[in-house]
Design goal:
Cytochrome Bc1 Complex, Chain D, domain 2, 10 helices, binds heme C, about 50% helix, elongated, mainly alpha, single chain
Length: about 270
């Protein structure tokens, strides 16, 4: 055996031993880890039950199930939890927005623990009031519209991936997406805090404009209700007209069924 092989074998053996040790340790209820705040300790327990199967005990990732979290940070964990993306049911489909699956206290605890695996960006502060909608619109058209389209309602971007609608996104989620580049979205490292405020302000503006359009369209009640409303609007005058035509009218019905007197003579 050459030294090359030996050098390879030693860390392997060490890793295997470490694996056995950590397996033995996790067989009982997880021991309290040293150096964790009570909040992070709470997060660790939640992480073990909800995330370990795909991201590994220490966020190292699990082949074929979930990526490493060692390049992530608070912003990334906050984003995936508050948009309900994690935990997902199937690791091979794109994570999508859904109901948040934890209480506020659990979300904060999970961020305190899982956000610490990497030194990715912290949760960004966003000030929509300090954002310039016009500047945000320019940034949006340059950087975002190609995937999320001009209205922000999203579109398929190929490879079975979809740039989702931004209509439900909070300003913080917009800034987080720009900072961490979730899934197939790129990281926009060149955009600074002012740019993120501008973009958030523009997205809020887009959302308000979309709401107005929906309100005008029957209060945005959805295609079924709107279809029904359209039918009723067309149907009610139609029924009224049919009834009017079908009812007897003095004068109009004279030719077909003229009034007669007691002798059967037509009264004129
Ligand atoms: C069934 C497997 C599965 C479970 C359970 C799961 N994840 Fe994930 N996670 C994934 C996959 C797969 C991705 C990549 C998703 C994508 O790119 O669309 C991911 C992405 C992430 C990301 C973003 C990382 C990146 O590279 O973009 C974070 C942060 C994250 N998960 C945290 C969590 C946390 C916290 C939990 C537990 C509450 C959790 N995940 C549970 C499979 C899982
Ligand atoms: C190359 C295409 C692409 C570009 C360009 C892009 N995005 Fe995305 N964006 C995506 C994809 C794909 C996702 C979904 C990520 C995932 O799988 O979780 C996403 C997700 C988002 C979300 C989360 C929406 C939700 O469902 O909660 C926001 C907010 C967002 N992007 C904002 C932006 C902004 C702002 C820009 C411009 C600075 C931008 N994106 C540019 C592809 C893109």
């Amino acid at each position: 055996m050459s030294f090359g092989h030996l050098a390879f074998a030693i860390p392997l053996a060490a890793a295997a031993t470490a694996g056995i040790v950590s397996l033995a340790a996790s067989a009982e209820s997880p021991p309290v880890a040293v150096g964790l705040t009570p909040l992070a300790e709470r997060g660790r327990v939640l992480y073990r039950t909800n995330c370990t199967s795909c991201h590994g005990n220490d966020g190292g990732g699990v082949e074929g199930r979930g990526p490493t979290l060692e390049d992530e940070g608070d912003a990334s964990v906050d984003f995936v939890l508050r948009t309900g993306r994690m935990p997902i049911a199937q690791p091979d489909v794109q994570a999508t927005r859904g109901p948040v699956q934890f209480t506020e206290e659990e979300v904060v605890a999970l961020i305190a623990y899982a956000g610490g695996f990497g030194d990715g960006p912290a949760i960004p502060g966003v000030d929509v009031a300090a954002g310039d909608v016009v500047a945000g619109g320019v940034l949006y058209r340059l950087n975002c519209a190609a995937c999320h389209v001009a209205s922000g309602s999203g579109a398929a971007i190929g490879g079975g991936r979809e740039a989702p609608s931004m209509m439900p996104s909070t300003p913080t989620e917009v800034a987080e997406a720009v900072l961490v580049g979730p899934g197939a979205m790129p990281v926009f490292g060149a955009l600074d805090e002012q740019d993120r405020d501008d973009l958030a302000a523009y997205v809020v503006d887009l959302q308000e404009r979309n709401e107005e359009i929906e309100l005008r369209n029957f209060g945005g009640a959805g295609p079924v209700a709107e279809g029904l409303a359209a039918w009723l609007l067309a149907l009610i005058p139609l029924v009224a007209l049919t009834r009017w035509i079908g009812s007897p009218h003095a004068g109009r019905d004279r030719g077909a069924n003229p009034p007669v007197d007691e002798h059967g003579e037509v009264v004129t």
